[in-house]
Amino acid sequence: AMSRGPHPDDSRVFGREEVGRLRRAAEEVSWLLGRGYSPESAIAAVGNHHQLEVRQRVAVSHCCSSDEAKN
Known about the structure:
By secondary structure, the protein is mostly helical. The protein has helices spanning 10-13, 16-33, 39-49, 54-62, 67-70. It contains 5 helices and no strands.
């Protein structure tokens, strides 16, 4: 069963000191999506570059879209 509420690692993986890194990662993923990369490839490349944990990669993927999709 899926648990509700914050994950025990949330304060670490989404804490104040991580916000800038996650924001940059999201911008980079969106840039790649706008240039024809698949979401999976973009998340993998950026996630590896920034050494993001799985939960951080999922969060970044949920907030990214190409510029075309935003219009």
